[in-house]
Write a structure and sequence with these properties.
- InterPro entries: Cro/C1-type_HTH, Lambda_DNA-bd_dom_sf.
- This is Transcriptional regulator.
- This protein is an all-alpha fold.
- The chain is built from five helices and no strands.
């Protein structure tokens, strides 16, 4: 399933959700990353302040890939998906 995001603040619920879906606690994530639980909690609370390198490491532990895609113009999307949304 894809989870599009337009702003860095949208990362927080995604990171929490992926971590919980993986069955990991913040302490376990921190251990995998070689940081303290408090540091990981801060990263999860405000992921937009983390470095890209740190975020990629977190996503690697969670086995989550980043896929970049050009944003679609809503008119183009409707033409290519006529049966969805009217």
């Amino acid at each position: 399933m894809d989870y599009p995001g337009k702003t860095p603040r949208q990362l927080r619920p995604l990171l929490v959700g992926f971590r919980k879906a993986s069955g990991l606690t913040q302490a376990q994530m921190a251990s995998h990353l070689g940081i303290t639980q408090q540091t990981y909690a801060q990263l999860e609370a405000k992921p937009e302040s983390a470095s890209m390198e740190r975020l990629f490491h977190v996503l690697s532990v969670l086995k989550v890939d980043i896929v970049l895609a050009r944003a679609l113009d809503p008119r183009t999307w409707k033409r290519s998906h006529p049966s969805v949304g009217g």
